[in-house]
């Protein structure tokens, strides 16, 4: 019985070893990890574990659960009533996106979506709140990204001003999941 229990534990992936979060723009999960925003549930301990089904926007986490990747232990990341700090960015600027990875994954792509003009930050994020297509996509064609800091440079949307939300999606090729990170920004 003990051997069977050990075998089952060995087959279940550990959240503690999973997987990655955005440092730039600074995600809600990182604000929680750093203690800048309180009452964040598991996000304060495991910002790298905000992982849910891939295929966004056609599939993936449901509307209102996007920032938490559809996982109840990260539900606080979807709470629009929290005082989420804003990262200051310039519309149209070249931006260096920065992910901190804590586990290796074969990668399909990295995508960045932004909210539409008129988005209501007092409501939970839905697909209808986001521009239809990502404003930046970095293909990876199955490259394995080991635990490291990963950077790629792309242009932020040029016709944005004021408060918006950027949704970063890291789609991995070696699992049925992707990693979701929401960052609140102010376009100057």
From TrEMBL:
This is Chitin-binding protein. Residues 19-185 form the Chitin-binding type-4 domain. The lineage of its organism: Bacteria, Bacillati, Actinomycetota, Actinomycetes, Kitasatosporales. Gene3D superfamilies: chitin-binding protein cbp21 (2.70.50.50). It comes from the Bacteria. It comes from Streptomyces palmae. Residues 44-63 are annotated as: Disordered. InterPro entries: Cellulose/chitin-bd_N (IPR004302), GlcNAc_Chitin_IntDeg (IPR051024), Ig_E-set (IPR014756). Residues 1-18 form the signal peptide. Keywords: Signal.
